[in-house]
Amino acid sequence: MALLHRAELRPSKLDLLTTWLPGRPWFAGTPGAEATRVASYRFDDPAGEVGIETILVRAGDGPVLQVPLTYRAAPLAGAERWLVGTTDHSVLGPRWVYDASGDPVYPPALAAAVLADAGQAEEYFEVDGRREVRAPSVTLTGGRADTAPAFDLVDEVVDGDPTLIRAGGAELALVRRPAPADASAAARLTGSWAGQVDPVLLAYVR
Model confidence at 149, in pLDDT bands (50, 70, 90)? Predict the structure, then answer.
């Protein structure tokens, strides 16, 4: 489960992405346009320390881009390459925001969704001691694989579209520009959201 806070972020996630996205090799969109949110979904960190959120955004008239992010209370050693930026959370304080593909908590969570249909984290607010659940904005459908490679220890991450996360001879592919899900592979993750009725391919294992 993901506990959300009614908080203010300075700068906002979208402000960070507006600056960061144009430098990515897989970026597509209107030059100089602000990033706008299309939908999002979250995974759980088993340790409960790191926020894991995938935001689907668009820059101007460009295509939908898939951007998984992790939120940490302190810098992640050796991950400067993956740093999106820092922000001040009005409840939690300073947060370091990373491209999740380079954060070790993300590949196992994504692999569980792709290979075992683990689904997304339930999102909720605490309101007067009661749990107020927020309805998901993305419908995810994972696969079922006979064998499930482990992605706990990543050997290499190759940024591109797809972004390739390699571990132990297996390859987890994160689709940066989600496309129609016409692939027949069982080990895949698809999603749909308001305005995107037909599922699109979000990730797969090969």
Answer: confident
